[in-house]
Amino acid sequence: MSESKYDKYFITNHVRSGPKRKGGAFGALRAAFPNVKFTGGFGFYSEPFIMIDKTHVHKYDDYLFFFGSNPDDISDFDAEWELCMGEEEEVHKINKTTLVYIPPGIIHCPLRLVKVNKPVFLMHIMDGIGE
Length: 131
What we know:
The protein is mainly beta. It has one helix and ten strands.
């Protein structure tokens, strides 16, 4: 197949795999398209681990999407994440399909996957390029 003038807009080598995750796209979009105005990524997770171990804050809207990995029923969620919010690190347990909005300036994390009976999917989008 010959190369198209639009091929440059398709990224096919962004997937990273490891013992706890199957996913990617973090950084791949910005690397390929430096003028992109948002960041994000996704992953399928099958073992407990600490994704982010320290609190932090962003100056952009931040969105987290937690789903089960059953393509016939994304509410089939058999795992538990913990996400801390605020200076007091209030722990929120995520044990069902959940969407989280984190406004600019809100301290958040650590983010931990503490129990996995079935693999789960996490997608992250932020309205900025990070800081």
